[in-house]
Design brief:
Keywords: Membrane, Transmembrane, Transmembrane helix. The protein is mostly helical. Among the domains are: 39 residues; 57 residues. 79% of the residues lie in helices and 0% in strands.
């Protein structure tokens, strides 16, 4: 530093005391020397930066894993849910098919019963020895014999 910067300008101060001026000049010079030394001293290159980067990287990995597991879990749940719904639909369709088959069998059974009843009626009508109109005469003929 130059000697001019260490001297106190008498215009700036109203102090006429040479001892005080000298003390203030020394204080100013030591303050400038200290700040120059603090400014020009070698500093380590941010030693906490690699630790911060490592933490950020670790947090990034953890968050990405959580996100990935969340997506995979949601996809697995949706697939499982759709399978359950498909099984329920299949069960409903099987029940509907069974109901329709039962109804068809009931209709066929009823038709067979109706056919059997009709055949029995025809059989009884054909197997008569005497036609229905002549039945009273047949009764009297049976009584005569």
């Amino acid at each position: 530093m130059t000697e001019q910067t260490n001297q106190v300008n008498p215009v700036d101060t109203d102090i006429d005391d040479p001892v005080l001026r000298s003390a203030l000049g020394d204080f100013r010079a030591s303050l400038h020397a200290w700040s120059d030394a603090a400014y020009n001293r070698p500093r380590p290159a941010l030693s906490s930066a690699p630790q911060a980067i490592a933490w950020r990287r670790a947090i990034g990995w953890v968050l990405s894993l959580i996100l990935s597991f969340g997506i995979l879990g949601t996809a697995a749940y949706e697939r499982h849910h759709s399978q359950i719904i498909a099984q329920e639909r299949q069960h409903q369709q099987d029940l509907e098919r069974q109901r329709l088959a039962d109804e068809q069998r009931a209709r066929e059974s009823a038709a067979a019963t109706d056919t059997e009843d009709l055949m029995a009626a025809v059989d009884s009508a054909v197997s008569r020895q005497v036609p229905a109109a002549m039945a009273p005469l047949a009764l009297t003929a049976d009584e005569i014999q």
